[in-house]
Task: structure prediction
Amino acid sequence: MTPAVGKKATGLIAATFTPLTPEGEINLAEIGPYVDYLLEQQGVKSIFVNGTTGEGMSLTVEERKMLAAEWCSKAKNKLENVIVHVGCMSLKDSQELAQHAGEIGADGIAVISPSFFKPATVGALKMFLQEVAAVVPAVPFYYYHIPAMTGVHLRSRDVLEGIDAEIPSFRGLKFSGSDLMDFGQCVSYSPSHWSLLYGMDEQLLGALAMGANGAVGSTYNYLGSSVNRLISAFNKGDLTMARTLQQLMSEVSGLVLGPPRLPLLPCPQSKAVSIARKLKQVLGVQ
Ligand SMILES: CC(=O)N[C@@H]([C@@H](O)[C@H](O)[C@H](O)CO)[C@@H](O)CC(=O)C(=O)O
Result:
């Protein structure tokens, strides 16, 4: 029987950036306007926080808690789903963040594979995931597959095998890989209450064709409204329009998100201006 936890995550889910001050400190004041911007200007109703785009692995556990709490508080009664990424190198840190996510009312947690000491087998990875999920058994749990960043290339389909017996709160997969065959096999294997979320924005159309229920990505922060049109075109069978929209890549939001944290480097101003100019031409906006 399906345990009654959580609402199914579907549609576009913005992988949020972490707002920083010019001095590199967390800028919580930008989060309220950020939530409103996603909802009102991009039509994006769900978020994935402290993930890759949010530079979660470059933040301290305390910073991650502060951010998760602020996102949950500002999203309350506005957004549909707030999924908090709680993956860390240390199992203990992940468990602490999972516990905290449960306390602040997150709609779900996601966990990436540890990547310094990498799990040698699917079994070892699943033991790690299980130990994190067990701390908050009533919170929907998602496995986050992103092999280009973790160097962990275990097939997601193998990870999913029998996972609901080990993690009863398991609710889906965030698949940020290019192997659409593996992704498609995950879709075929999954029961209907799981969410199969695709995470390589450039290939979303391919993933929709393979049966994705939704998508998590960085570009949905500023391209959400265009990508919502892509999904509608796909759902109506208008593949010509869907292909055209898939070509679009970036837009300027007007939010003050600050620089990234080292070791990431800021985008040079001249490059940012030229990207914004090109995109505005493509989108036909001022
Ligand atoms: C490596 C990376 O950052 N991938 C992004 C994509 O959205 C990516 O930025 C996009 O496809 C553009 O390349 C997401 O998969 C990451 C993500 O969802 C997250 O922030 O956790």
Notes: The chain has one domain: 11-258. The beta strands are 11-15, 46-49, 81-85, 108-112, 141-145, 170-175, 195-198, 214-217. Residues 11-258 form a domain with the TIM Barrel fold (CATH 3.20.20.70). DSSP finds twelve helices and eight strands in the chain.
